[in-house]
Amino acid sequence: MTNTKANAAALSWYEASARQRIDALLDPGSFHEFIGPEQREKSPHLSIFDLPEQFDDGIVIGRGRLDGSSILIAAQEGRFMGGAFGEIHGAKLTGLLRAARKLQQDVLILFDTGGVRLQEANAGELAIAEIMRAVIEARRAGIRVVGLIGGRAGCYGGGSLIAGTCSSLIISEQGRLSVSGPEVIETNKGIEEFDSRDRALVWRTMGGKHRYLIGGADMFVDDEAMAFRDAAITALQRGRRCDLAVLEAEQQRLERRLKRFGDAGDAVEVWQTIGVEKPTDIPGLPINAFLQRTADKRENADDAR
Predict the structure, then answer these.
(1) Is residue 154, in this structure, part of any structural domain at all?
(2) Which domain covers residue 151, as residue numbers?
(3) Which of 90, 118, 227, 292 counts the most CB atoms within 10 A of its CB?
C-alpha cells in the first residue's frame, strides 16, 4: 500500500476537512476544482452582519476520477458556519448538478451541514429548492447522485431534504441525519421531548446506525475515508430509477414505517420492533458486529426503488 493510500485509510472522515475528504476519496492527483479559491466567490450577505467570509463559501466543487471513472464531486465544509447553505454555496452545488446532466457524469455530494444560514434565510431556502430540483432532473436523465454523510455538522435541515432526493446514501456511525436538529426540537418542544445535550440520545435517534436500520441510508460504513471510497464505488455501480412508480413505492414505504413505529418513544423500541436481538447493545457494537447482528432486520429502502 502506498503512503497516500495508507494515509487515506487512516483518515477519520468525521475529523477531516472538505478538501481532505476529496483528496482521500478520489484517485490521487485527479481532482480539478471549479470556481477555485483564486476566484474569491464569497457570500455577498455575511459582511452586512459583520460575519467572517470564506473564499469558497463553505463548499468545494469539481471533477475527478474515482477508481478510474470520471466523476463530479461537491464537499461541504462543516467548519465554516456549520456547512450552512447560502446563496453562493447553493448556486455552486446547483450548477454542478446541472453540469452533470450535460456531461452525463455521476455526482458525489459530501454532506456536512446544519441546514440553511439564518443570515441568508430566503436565499438559502431558495437554494435548497433549486438543488432538489436539480438532483431530480439529473436522476431523471440517468445520473446517479450519491450522498455521503459522516461529518461534524451532520446533515440537517435543508441538507437532509437534499439527501432524501439522492439515488443512495452512505452513512457512518458518526453521521447524523434529520430534518430538525437537536436544539431545534428542544427549543420548540421542550427538554422533556428532546434533550439536545444528551449525546447518546442524539446519536441513538439521528445517528448512522438508526438511519441505516430504518432504511434512511443504504450503506453503513466505518469512520474511515477508504471505507467511504469503497462504498461510493459500489453505490455508483447500482442502478437507480427515478420515476412515478418509484416515488409511489417510497411513499407507501414511509406510510408503513410511520404506522409501524409511530408510537415508539425511543430508537431502542424501534430496533426491538424490527426484531434486533438485545437492542440496547446496538450503540456500543463495533461495525462488523452491528452489521452481522442486523443483517436481515433492517427496513430496506431498496424495496421502493
Answers:
(1) yes
(2) 3-241
(3) 90
